[in-house]
Amino acid sequence: MGSTAVVVGGGIGGLAAAIGLRLIGWEVTVVERAPVLDDAGAGISLAANGMRALDALGVGEAVRKLSRGQYSGGTRTPDGRWLARMDGTALERALGTPMLGIPRATLHRLLRAALPPECLVTGAEVTSLDRSRPALVRVTCDAAVLDADLVVAADGVGSHVRTLLFPDHPGPAYSGSTVLRAITSRPIDPGTDFELTWGPGAEFGHIAFADGRAEWHAVLNSPAGVRHRDPLAEVHRRFHGWHAPIPALLEATAPDAVLHHDVNELVTPLPSYTVGRVALLGDAAHAMTPNLGQGACQALEDAVTLAAALNAEPTVESALTRYDTERRPRSQAVARAARQAGRIGQQLTHPLAITLRNTALRLTPPRAAARMILRHANWAPPRLG
User: Fold this and answer.
1) Which of 5, 78, 127, 320 keeps 20 to 30 A from 307, CA to CA?
2) Closest to 284 (Cα-Cα) out of 162, 370, 119
3) What domains sit in the chain, N to C, each tagged with a CATH number?
4) pLDDT tens across 250-264, in order?
5) In b/e form, how buried is each residue of 187-205, taking b as 16+ CB within 10 angstroms?
Protein backbone atom coordinates (compact mmCIF):
# COMPACT_ATOMS: atom_id res chain seq x y z
CA MET A 1 0.00 0.00 0.00
CA GLY A 2 1.30 3.44 -0.91
CA SER A 3 1.51 6.37 1.45
CA THR A 4 1.66 9.59 -0.58
CA ALA A 5 -1.37 11.46 -1.93
CA VAL A 6 -2.11 14.61 -3.88
CA VAL A 7 -5.50 16.17 -3.19
CA VAL A 8 -6.65 18.46 -5.99
CA GLY A 9 -8.85 21.20 -4.54
CA GLY A 10 -8.72 22.99 -1.20
CA GLY A 11 -12.44 23.25 -0.47
CA ILE A 12 -14.34 21.50 2.30
CA GLY A 13 -14.16 18.07 0.66
CA GLY A 14 -10.50 18.33 -0.27
CA LEU A 15 -9.40 19.51 3.16
CA ALA A 16 -11.49 16.81 4.85
CA ALA A 17 -9.93 14.17 2.61
CA ALA A 18 -6.44 15.44 3.49
CA ILE A 19 -7.24 15.28 7.21
CA GLY A 20 -8.54 11.73 6.88
CA LEU A 21 -5.51 10.57 4.92
CA ARG A 22 -3.12 12.11 7.43
CA LEU A 23 -4.98 10.39 10.27
CA ILE A 24 -4.15 7.01 8.71
CA GLY A 25 -0.51 7.95 8.24
CA TRP A 26 -0.35 9.22 4.68
CA GLU A 27 1.76 12.11 3.45
CA VAL A 28 -0.56 14.57 1.73
CA THR A 29 -0.19 17.60 -0.52
CA VAL A 30 -3.28 19.72 -1.20
CA VAL A 31 -3.10 21.63 -4.49
CA GLU A 32 -5.48 24.58 -4.82
CA ARG A 33 -5.64 26.78 -7.90
CA ALA A 34 -6.79 29.89 -6.01
CA PRO A 35 -3.83 32.03 -4.96
CA VAL A 36 -5.22 32.59 -1.47
CA LEU A 37 -7.53 30.50 0.69
CA ASP A 38 -9.51 33.54 1.82
CA ASP A 39 -12.39 32.03 3.80
CA ALA A 40 -15.02 33.06 1.29
CA GLY A 41 -18.61 31.88 1.16
CA ALA A 42 -21.91 32.32 2.93
CA GLY A 43 -23.52 29.82 5.31
CA ILE A 44 -24.00 26.10 5.62
CA SER A 45 -26.23 23.70 7.54
CA LEU A 46 -24.63 20.53 8.84
CA ALA A 47 -26.85 17.52 9.37
CA ALA A 48 -25.98 14.62 11.65
CA ASN A 49 -24.16 12.71 8.92
CA GLY A 50 -21.86 15.65 8.28
CA MET A 51 -21.19 16.10 11.98
CA ARG A 52 -20.46 12.41 12.44
CA ALA A 53 -17.95 12.64 9.61
CA LEU A 54 -16.34 15.67 11.24
CA ASP A 55 -16.19 13.79 14.55
CA ALA A 56 -14.40 10.91 12.81
CA LEU A 57 -11.91 13.44 11.44
CA GLY A 58 -11.32 14.89 14.91
CA VAL A 59 -12.73 18.37 14.28
CA GLY A 60 -16.36 17.91 15.29
CA GLU A 61 -16.04 19.51 18.72
CA ALA A 62 -14.33 22.59 17.33
CA VAL A 63 -17.14 22.97 14.78
CA ARG A 64 -19.84 22.60 17.45
CA LYS A 65 -18.31 25.38 19.54
CA LEU A 66 -18.73 27.85 16.69
CA SER A 67 -22.10 26.62 15.42
CA ARG A 68 -25.71 27.34 16.32
CA GLY A 69 -28.21 24.54 16.72
CA GLN A 70 -31.25 24.66 14.45
CA TYR A 71 -34.16 23.99 16.78
CA SER A 72 -36.80 26.42 15.53
CA GLY A 73 -38.13 27.35 12.12
CA GLY A 74 -39.60 25.51 9.17
CA THR A 75 -41.20 26.27 5.81
CA ARG A 76 -43.55 29.17 5.06
CA THR A 77 -45.48 30.91 2.30
CA PRO A 78 -44.60 34.49 1.22
CA ASP A 79 -47.37 35.90 3.43
CA GLY A 80 -45.84 34.18 6.46
CA ARG A 81 -48.21 31.24 6.91
CA TRP A 82 -46.52 28.06 8.09
CA LEU A 83 -46.47 25.01 5.84
CA ALA A 84 -44.34 22.88 8.15
CA ARG A 85 -42.59 23.44 11.47
CA MET A 86 -39.14 22.24 12.39
CA ASP A 87 -38.74 20.17 15.55
CA GLY A 88 -35.00 20.33 16.10
CA THR A 89 -35.28 18.81 19.56
CA ALA A 90 -36.90 15.66 18.15
CA LEU A 91 -34.17 15.38 15.53
CA GLU A 92 -31.53 15.76 18.21
CA ARG A 93 -33.12 12.96 20.23
CA ALA A 94 -33.20 10.71 17.16
CA LEU A 95 -29.73 11.50 15.85
CA GLY A 96 -27.72 12.67 18.86
CA THR A 97 -27.13 16.12 17.37
CA PRO A 98 -29.30 18.92 16.02
CA MET A 99 -28.81 20.44 12.62
CA LEU A 100 -26.10 23.09 13.00
CA GLY A 101 -25.63 26.40 11.20
CA ILE A 102 -22.14 27.81 10.66
CA PRO A 103 -20.50 30.24 8.23
CA ARG A 104 -18.87 28.27 5.46
CA ALA A 105 -15.70 30.33 5.98
CA THR A 106 -15.54 29.27 9.63
CA LEU A 107 -15.85 25.59 8.75
CA HIS A 108 -13.18 25.99 6.08
CA ARG A 109 -10.85 27.72 8.55
CA LEU A 110 -11.30 24.96 11.14
CA LEU A 111 -10.53 22.26 8.58
CA ARG A 112 -7.48 24.15 7.37
CA ALA A 113 -6.24 24.54 10.94
CA ALA A 114 -6.24 20.75 11.31
CA LEU A 115 -3.56 20.49 8.61
CA PRO A 116 0.07 21.64 8.71
CA PRO A 117 0.49 24.75 6.55
CA GLU A 118 3.28 23.18 4.54
CA CYS A 119 0.92 20.58 3.01
CA LEU A 120 -1.19 23.32 1.35
CA VAL A 121 -0.01 24.57 -2.06
CA THR A 122 -2.01 27.51 -3.45
CA GLY A 123 -1.95 29.21 -6.82
CA ALA A 124 -1.24 25.93 -8.61
CA GLU A 125 -3.56 24.44 -11.22
CA VAL A 126 -3.39 20.80 -12.28
CA THR A 127 -2.86 20.63 -16.02
CA SER A 128 -2.31 16.91 -16.60
CA LEU A 129 -2.24 13.45 -15.04
CA ASP A 130 0.14 10.72 -16.15
CA ARG A 131 -1.27 7.30 -15.19
CA SER A 132 1.02 5.25 -17.42
CA ARG A 133 2.82 3.64 -14.52
CA PRO A 134 0.72 1.11 -12.58
CA ALA A 135 1.67 2.15 -9.04
CA LEU A 136 2.15 5.88 -9.45
CA VAL A 137 0.32 8.96 -10.71
CA ARG A 138 2.31 11.95 -11.93
CA VAL A 139 0.50 15.25 -11.42
CA THR A 140 1.64 18.29 -13.36
CA CYS A 141 0.71 21.59 -11.72
CA ASP A 142 1.79 24.48 -13.89
CA ALA A 143 5.59 24.05 -13.83
CA ALA A 144 5.75 21.65 -10.88
CA VAL A 145 5.54 17.86 -11.02
CA LEU A 146 4.29 15.72 -8.12
CA ASP A 147 4.42 11.92 -7.97
CA ALA A 148 1.85 10.20 -5.74
CA ASP A 149 0.46 6.79 -4.92
CA LEU A 150 -3.03 8.30 -4.96
CA VAL A 151 -4.73 11.37 -6.40
CA VAL A 152 -7.97 12.65 -4.89
CA ALA A 153 -9.90 14.95 -7.21
CA ALA A 154 -11.93 17.36 -5.07
CA ASP A 155 -11.88 20.21 -7.57
CA GLY A 156 -15.57 21.01 -7.61
CA VAL A 157 -18.51 20.89 -9.95
CA GLY A 158 -16.39 22.03 -12.92
CA SER A 159 -13.68 19.46 -12.12
CA HIS A 160 -10.83 19.49 -14.63
CA VAL A 161 -9.63 16.12 -13.34
CA ARG A 162 -13.07 14.61 -13.97
CA THR A 163 -12.86 15.84 -17.57
CA LEU A 164 -9.43 14.23 -17.96
CA LEU A 165 -10.75 10.92 -16.62
CA PHE A 166 -14.13 10.94 -18.39
CA PRO A 167 -13.71 13.04 -21.56
CA ASP A 168 -17.01 11.77 -23.01
CA HIS A 169 -19.10 12.64 -19.95
CA PRO A 170 -21.36 15.65 -20.60
CA GLY A 171 -20.26 17.30 -17.36
CA PRO A 172 -22.36 19.62 -15.21
CA ALA A 173 -25.72 20.92 -16.36
CA TYR A 174 -27.59 24.04 -15.32
CA SER A 175 -30.43 23.19 -12.93
CA GLY A 176 -32.67 26.06 -13.97
CA SER A 177 -32.10 27.92 -10.70
CA THR A 178 -29.73 30.69 -9.68
CA VAL A 179 -28.89 31.67 -6.10
CA LEU A 180 -27.98 34.98 -4.50
CA ARG A 181 -26.75 34.82 -0.91
CA ALA A 182 -25.00 36.85 1.76
CA ILE A 183 -24.23 37.08 5.44
CA THR A 184 -25.55 40.11 7.28
CA SER A 185 -22.97 42.72 8.22
CA ARG A 186 -24.32 43.03 11.75
CA PRO A 187 -26.10 40.85 14.32
CA ILE A 188 -29.81 40.43 13.72
CA ASP A 189 -32.54 38.36 15.34
CA PRO A 190 -34.49 36.59 12.58
CA GLY A 191 -36.78 34.98 15.16
CA THR A 192 -35.95 31.38 14.23
CA ASP A 193 -32.82 29.31 13.64
CA PHE A 194 -33.63 28.19 10.11
CA GLU A 195 -36.39 28.96 7.61
CA LEU A 196 -37.38 28.42 4.00
CA THR A 197 -40.13 30.35 2.25
CA TRP A 198 -41.49 29.14 -1.07
CA GLY A 199 -43.16 31.32 -3.66
CA PRO A 200 -43.75 30.72 -7.37
CA GLY A 201 -40.35 29.87 -8.83
CA ALA A 202 -38.57 31.39 -5.85
CA GLU A 203 -37.24 30.53 -2.40
CA PHE A 204 -35.92 32.71 0.39
CA GLY A 205 -34.21 31.16 3.40
CA HIS A 206 -32.06 32.06 6.37
CA ILE A 207 -29.62 30.41 8.78
CA ALA A 208 -28.90 32.06 12.13
CA PHE A 209 -25.30 31.92 13.40
CA ALA A 210 -23.80 31.72 16.87
CA ASP A 211 -22.25 35.21 16.59
CA GLY A 212 -25.66 36.84 16.04
CA ARG A 213 -25.33 37.32 12.29
CA ALA A 214 -27.41 35.40 9.79
CA GLU A 215 -27.02 34.05 6.29
CA TRP A 216 -29.80 34.46 3.75
CA HIS A 217 -30.22 32.98 0.33
CA ALA A 218 -32.60 33.75 -2.51
CA VAL A 219 -33.11 31.07 -5.18
CA LEU A 220 -34.83 32.01 -8.43
CA ASN A 221 -35.88 30.27 -11.61
CA SER A 222 -33.77 32.04 -14.21
CA PRO A 223 -31.92 31.56 -17.48
CA ALA A 224 -28.27 30.70 -16.91
CA GLY A 225 -25.78 33.53 -16.82
CA VAL A 226 -28.12 36.38 -15.89
CA ARG A 227 -26.37 38.89 -13.62
CA HIS A 228 -27.51 42.15 -12.05
CA ARG A 229 -25.66 45.43 -11.72
CA ASP A 230 -26.95 45.75 -8.14
CA PRO A 231 -27.71 42.22 -6.85
CA LEU A 232 -29.01 43.37 -3.46
CA ALA A 233 -31.43 45.83 -5.08
CA GLU A 234 -32.67 43.01 -7.32
CA VAL A 235 -33.36 40.79 -4.29
CA HIS A 236 -35.18 43.70 -2.61
CA ARG A 237 -37.29 44.10 -5.74
CA ARG A 238 -37.99 40.38 -6.16
CA PHE A 239 -38.95 39.74 -2.52
CA HIS A 240 -40.68 43.02 -1.79
CA GLY A 241 -43.73 42.30 0.32
CA TRP A 242 -42.61 38.91 1.61
CA HIS A 243 -42.99 38.31 5.34
CA ALA A 244 -40.66 39.35 8.17
CA PRO A 245 -37.77 38.89 8.81
CA ILE A 246 -36.91 38.99 5.07
CA PRO A 247 -36.90 42.80 4.77
CA ALA A 248 -34.78 43.14 7.92
CA LEU A 249 -32.25 40.56 6.70
CA LEU A 250 -31.80 42.46 3.45
CA GLU A 251 -31.52 45.80 5.25
CA ALA A 252 -28.74 44.34 7.43
CA THR A 253 -26.70 43.31 4.36
CA ALA A 254 -23.92 45.29 2.69
CA PRO A 255 -24.41 45.55 -1.09
CA ASP A 256 -20.92 44.21 -1.84
CA ALA A 257 -21.51 41.11 0.32
CA VAL A 258 -23.94 39.43 -2.09
CA LEU A 259 -22.66 36.36 -3.94
CA HIS A 260 -24.41 35.16 -7.09
CA HIS A 261 -23.98 31.70 -8.60
CA ASP A 262 -25.94 29.55 -10.99
CA VAL A 263 -26.78 26.12 -9.58
CA ASN A 264 -25.13 23.41 -11.68
CA GLU A 265 -25.33 19.67 -11.07
CA LEU A 266 -24.21 16.35 -12.49
CA VAL A 267 -27.49 15.17 -13.99
CA THR A 268 -25.75 12.30 -15.78
CA PRO A 269 -24.27 10.08 -13.04
CA LEU A 270 -20.67 9.02 -13.33
CA PRO A 271 -20.13 5.30 -14.04
CA SER A 272 -17.42 5.20 -11.37
CA TYR A 273 -15.84 7.49 -8.79
CA THR A 274 -12.40 5.96 -9.41
CA VAL A 275 -10.10 5.44 -12.37
CA GLY A 276 -6.84 3.64 -11.65
CA ARG A 277 -5.33 5.37 -8.62
CA VAL A 278 -7.47 8.48 -8.92
CA ALA A 279 -10.59 8.99 -6.78
CA LEU A 280 -13.26 11.64 -7.32
CA LEU A 281 -14.78 13.22 -4.24
CA GLY A 282 -17.49 15.76 -3.38
CA ASP A 283 -18.89 17.94 -6.17
CA ALA A 284 -16.35 16.54 -8.61
CA ALA A 285 -18.08 13.17 -8.18
CA HIS A 286 -21.72 14.03 -7.48
CA ALA A 287 -22.49 17.76 -7.66
CA MET A 288 -26.09 18.18 -6.52
CA THR A 289 -28.61 20.94 -6.03
CA PRO A 290 -28.75 22.46 -2.53
CA ASN A 291 -32.39 21.58 -1.88
CA LEU A 292 -31.60 18.99 0.81
CA GLY A 293 -28.59 20.81 2.26
CA GLN A 294 -26.53 17.67 1.71
CA GLY A 295 -23.76 18.75 -0.66
CA ALA A 296 -21.06 19.39 1.93
CA CYS A 297 -22.25 16.53 4.14
CA GLN A 298 -21.88 14.07 1.27
CA ALA A 299 -18.36 15.35 0.59
CA LEU A 300 -17.49 14.82 4.25
CA GLU A 301 -18.88 11.28 4.07
CA ASP A 302 -16.70 10.69 1.00
CA ALA A 303 -13.59 11.84 2.84
CA VAL A 304 -14.07 9.55 5.82
CA THR A 305 -15.09 6.56 3.71
CA LEU A 306 -12.03 6.95 1.45
CA ALA A 307 -9.62 7.13 4.39
CA ALA A 308 -11.26 4.15 6.11
CA ALA A 309 -11.07 2.05 2.94
CA LEU A 310 -7.40 2.87 2.43
CA ASN A 311 -6.71 1.99 6.06
CA ALA A 312 -8.54 -1.35 5.88
CA GLU A 313 -7.70 -2.71 2.43
CA PRO A 314 -4.37 -4.31 1.41
CA THR A 315 -3.94 -2.29 -1.79
CA VAL A 316 -4.86 1.11 -3.14
CA GLU A 317 -6.80 -0.56 -5.94
CA SER A 318 -8.95 -2.65 -3.60
CA ALA A 319 -9.49 0.38 -1.35
CA LEU A 320 -10.74 2.48 -4.25
CA THR A 321 -13.05 -0.32 -5.38
CA ARG A 322 -14.50 -0.37 -1.87
CA TYR A 323 -14.82 3.42 -1.82
CA ASP A 324 -16.70 3.44 -5.12
CA THR A 325 -18.97 0.59 -4.04
CA GLU A 326 -19.88 2.30 -0.78
CA ARG A 327 -20.17 5.91 -1.92
CA ARG A 328 -21.58 5.95 -5.43
CA PRO A 329 -25.04 4.43 -4.78
CA ARG A 330 -25.72 6.55 -1.69
CA SER A 331 -24.45 9.89 -2.97
CA GLN A 332 -26.17 9.51 -6.34
CA ALA A 333 -29.44 8.64 -4.60
CA VAL A 334 -29.12 11.79 -2.46
CA ALA A 335 -28.44 13.83 -5.61
CA ARG A 336 -31.61 12.48 -7.24
CA ALA A 337 -33.63 13.25 -4.11
CA ALA A 338 -32.24 16.79 -4.00
CA ARG A 339 -33.22 17.36 -7.64
CA GLN A 340 -36.73 16.10 -6.96
CA ALA A 341 -37.02 18.27 -3.85
CA GLY A 342 -36.22 21.33 -5.96
CA ARG A 343 -38.81 20.43 -8.56
CA ILE A 344 -41.63 20.17 -6.02
CA GLY A 345 -40.29 23.04 -3.90
CA GLN A 346 -38.65 26.22 -5.14
CA GLN A 347 -39.03 25.52 -8.86
CA LEU A 348 -42.82 25.07 -8.90
CA THR A 349 -44.67 27.88 -10.69
CA HIS A 350 -48.14 26.55 -11.60
CA PRO A 351 -50.72 27.83 -9.08
CA LEU A 352 -52.58 24.52 -8.87
CA ALA A 353 -49.37 22.55 -8.32
CA ILE A 354 -48.31 25.00 -5.60
CA THR A 355 -51.69 24.69 -3.88
CA LEU A 356 -51.52 20.89 -3.94
CA ARG A 357 -47.96 20.89 -2.58
CA ASN A 358 -48.78 23.35 0.19
CA THR A 359 -51.84 21.35 1.21
CA ALA A 360 -49.81 18.16 1.30
CA LEU A 361 -47.15 19.78 3.47
CA ARG A 362 -49.70 21.10 5.95
CA LEU A 363 -51.29 17.64 6.22
CA THR A 364 -48.01 15.73 6.58
CA PRO A 365 -47.59 14.48 10.18
CA PRO A 366 -44.42 15.77 11.88
CA ARG A 367 -43.11 12.21 12.30
CA ALA A 368 -43.38 11.56 8.57
CA ALA A 369 -41.50 14.78 7.82
CA ALA A 370 -38.80 13.81 10.31
CA ARG A 371 -38.40 10.42 8.63
CA MET A 372 -37.54 12.18 5.37
CA ILE A 373 -34.69 14.00 7.10
CA LEU A 374 -33.54 10.88 8.92
CA ARG A 375 -33.32 8.96 5.65
CA HIS A 376 -30.39 11.10 4.52
CA ALA A 377 -28.88 12.24 7.82
CA ASN A 378 -28.76 8.93 9.71
CA TRP A 379 -25.37 7.72 8.45
CA ALA A 380 -22.71 6.04 10.57
CA PRO A 381 -19.07 6.65 9.60
CA PRO A 382 -16.67 3.73 9.18
CA ARG A 383 -13.86 3.47 11.69
CA LEU A 384 -10.56 5.09 10.78
CA GLY A 385 -8.56 3.30 13.45
Assistant:
1) 127
2) 162
3) 4-70+100-173+266-347 (3.50.50.60)
4) 999 999 999 999 999
5) ebebebbbbbbbbebbbbb
